[in-house]
UniProtKB/TrEMBL annotation:
Species of origin: Minwuia thermotolerans
Name used for this protein in its record: IS630 family transposase
Top-level taxon of the source organism: Bacteria
């Protein structure tokens, strides 16, 4: 993995990502559709 690369997410996006990670039953395609 490359080092020295970082990115920032807004608080709203962070909470959405955390919710997806927390919910183990979330469909995998949610991850594929996430806006990066």
């Amino acid at each position: 993995m490359r080092t020295g690369i970082s990115f920032e997410v807004s608080p709203d996006d962070r909470s959405r990502l955390e919710a997806l990670v927390r919910d183990r039953n979330a469909p995998q395609n949610h991850v594929w559709r996430a806006r990066i």
